[in-house]
Every structure is written in C-alpha cells, then in structure tokens.
Amino acid sequence: MGRGGLRHLLLRNLLERILRRSGSGTAPGSVGEAISTLRDDVESVDGVVDWPFDVTAALAYASGAIAVLLTVDARITVAVFLPLAAVIATAQLLRTRLQHYRAASRQATARVTGVIGEIFTARQAIQVAGAEAAVVARLRRLGEERKRAVLRERLQDLSLDAVFTGTVNLGTGLTLLAAASAMRAGTFTIGDFALFATYLSQVAEFTSFVGYLVAMYQKTRIAFRRLVDLLQGAPPAALVAHHPVPLAGPLPDLPAPARSAGDRLRHFAVRGITVRHPRGGGIEDASLEIEPGTLTVITGRVGSGKSTLLRAMLGLVETQSGERFWNGRAVARPGEFLVPPRVAYVPQVPVLLSGTVRENICLGLPCADEALRRAVRDSALERDLLAFPQGLDTVIGTRGVRLSGGQIQRTAVARAPVREPELFVFDDISSALDVETEQQLWRRVLARGVACVAVSHRPAVLRQAHRIIVLDGGRIVGCGRLEELLETCPAMRDLWSASAEGAP
C-alpha cells in the first residue's frame, strides 16, 4: 500500500476501535492527545512506508559500489565504513534523548489541541463567566510550552544532521588523503581515483541516509507506541487490518442494523453490577430486570449514581463485577451487543453534528421517510420543524448551536425511535423541556409499547413508571411502584417532597 493509503487505513482502523470501545472505555489520555495521535502520529508512521524501497535501492547501489572499491584498494575502502559506524553509534547514543524530546513535543501539542477543543465546546460558559482573559492566558502559556518543546526537538534534529553530515565529510576527506598518499607511492592510479570519486559520493550519501533513518526510527517508535495505546488492548496488527477505504466517489450507504429473532426482547436483566470510579463514587451490587412494554425509572439525588448505573447496564463504563442477560443469555460484550436494533441510548448531554436535522437523526443510516416522520412526531419535534427554514434539511450548526436546549434533546431522542429498537434507554432527556412538551414526548414514546429505562426525577414520569429504582450513595435502596415506595422508602419520600410538584 502506498503512502497516503496507509494513512487512511490507519485512521479507519483506529476510529473503528475507538467507536467500538466507546461503550466500554474512553480513549486513553485526553481528547487532545487522541486528536494529536490521529493527526501527527499517523502521519509519522505513514511517512516510513516507502523506507524499505529507498533503503533497498540505496543499499544495493552502495554494496555494488563498495564491492568495486574493494577490488581497487581494500585499505582505502575500509575507511569508507568508519563514518557509517560513527553515525550509527551517535544515533544510538542519543536514542533516549530523541525519544524524550519527541514524546515531550507530542504531549505539549496534545495539550494545546485539547484546550482549543474545550474552548469551542464551552464558549458560552466562558463568555457568561467573563473568563476570556484567563482562557487566552492559559492558551498562550500552553502555546509557549509547546514552542519550547518543538524547538528542543528541532534543535536535536538539526544537531544530528550536522553530526551526520560532518562525520561523512570528515570520512570522505580522510579517504581522499589516503588515496593521495597511495597515488604518490604509485599504488593508486588516476583512473582509480576517478572511480573512487564517482562512487564515494554515493556511499557517503548512503551513510548519511542511514543516520537519518536511525534517528527517524526512534521517533517512529514513539508514534507507533501511541497508536498502539489508542487501540486499548487490541493487538498491534489491528492497526493495518485490511479493510476497503473508499477515498473517491459518493460515500457508501451504511447498512441498516440486522435484526434476528433473538433480538426481540423477552427479558433483560442486570445482576450485581459494581462500578468504582478512580476518584471515588460509583455503584455497588446493583441489579434490575426489564420486561417488554414497561417503563423503569432510575431516580435519586445528584451524585447518587443514576447515570453510572444506566451506562454500566449498557457496558458504557468499565465494571468491576456484574453480568447482563438478554433473554436469559449472558451478554459477553455489552458495549457491542446492546446497540440497535436491540437498544437505543440517548445520553444526558447529547452531541449533535454540524449538519442537517435529517443527518443528525439518521447518522448515516438509511431512513425511510415514513419512519423518519414518525420518529420526529414521537420526539415531539414536528412543530419545531415547521418553523425551520428548510425543515429536516435545515443546517443546525456545530453541536446544534442554532437550536435551543429542548430542540437539541428532542433531535437526539428522535435517533432512538427511527432505529426501532426493542429497548429505549434515556438519561434525563426532558431536563430542558417545558411540562406540556415533556408530557407529550413521554406519551408518544410509551405509546410504542416497547421497554423503556429512564433516569428522571420528574413527578410526571415517576407516576407512569411500572417500576422505580431509588439510588442513594451508589446503592439501590428502593424498588417498586411510586405508591409503594412513598410508604416504604425514606429516600423516595425525601425526593418526592423536594419536588416542585411533590403532591402525588
């Protein structure tokens, strides 16, 4: 595979791994480090794809030249090898420093990239807080750190180039001096000198090229190690696993999620799930069961572990213990199994793309017009579409900047019914909705008759729940219908009385 093609293959395989792992763990390090790896380290590895051909050609030519020179004068020819040995030894001695400067440069670049991404994401919060000057100062400080790291790396590169070039030139000069001495002694003819002068430059260039390759190899090792880290446990060979990468023409259509008889939900159970966050918190030994056509609501105080339980149920976070069972069969890879057409998940903070409403709902999947219209209606978005200038084809801007908070939530909600899953999983999807729109949304979603699990503290949702799971301090302290919990669960009574609509 030629240069460029390898870069796209690496990007394709890395992104596939990240997206598959998004259910069971985030990318290692910060987002900025991941972007830096996908951009810079992929480019570095791709840059060495032609080396075998270059090295083979240069080695073949240099070997032939050296063979010719040995037949002319072996003693003088040996002097040609001395610079090569010096160049390789110098590069090896500086290996640790090369890797250190390369790693520091990449980390500094990743920090700058990450902060720029955070600034774009939190631009409104920055403006409201009046923190523009502080943010710019931080970005400037990180930029200075990156500049120093890149300059140190560049200075190291230039110093090595000077060493390689100087060593080769010194060796060439010594060789010519030895040849001149042999000419005076009559053992080295003018023709021999002309032959040496012709081949010597090629051997010298090869010597310098070897030094460059050794230095670049050390840098590429850093890039390759970062790529492997981004695979998060997959074998290094997964980086170059063969897959078609269409680089021209229209994008291929994504196939609709395949549905089988075993995908139809009869019973879903989560047993003994435990998640312990590195900085404290999580959930302990949580279990729940879900049947078709029921609404299960997870509720509790802020920080009680509601979203963690929801994400752990779907394999979206690493768990220390616990199992999931779909129709009685254990789910080995929940992050890959609990997806459409089995499960559709809408997070608490949905992310929209810089495209049209249609593109944000379908996300590349083929969507029939009737299914799309029904999904829009079920998400209570149809009135808003009437006010959009191009309806479903209205461009909403980066992260839905042209939409209100409620419109963003309902656009994300529409992604779920359009995929016709067996189980809806919603994480507080009505936090930005007014009471009337919220009631309309839940009425239409539940009218589909499929199973639904939702995180919510809204009384209107709690009243409709077939089962409520109450969390307190990461543990389930109550499970049942609202009337039962108000009698038996103190935590539920506290939550209900704290609600603005607390009257049952």
From TrEMBL:
Localization terms from the record: Cell membrane
Record keywords, A-Z: ATP-binding, Membrane, Nucleotide-binding, Transmembrane, Transmembrane helix
GO molecular function: ATP binding
Transmembrane segments: 76-94, 158-181, 193-217
A Pfam cross-reference name: ABC_membrane
Annotated signal peptide: none
SMART domains associated with the record: AAA
InterPro entries: AAA+_ATPase (IPR003593), ABC1_TM_dom (IPR011527), ABC1_TM_sf (IPR036640), ABC_transporter-like_ATP-bd (IPR003439), P-loop_NTPase (IPR027417), Type_1_exporter (IPR039421)
Transmembrane helix recorded as keyword: yes
Name of the protein this chain belongs to: ATP-binding cassette subfamily B protein
Domain spans labelled ABC transporter: 268-498
Membrane topology summary: Multi-pass membrane protein
Protein's UniProt keywords contain Manganese: no
Domain of life: Bacteria
Domain ABC transmembrane type-1: 1-219
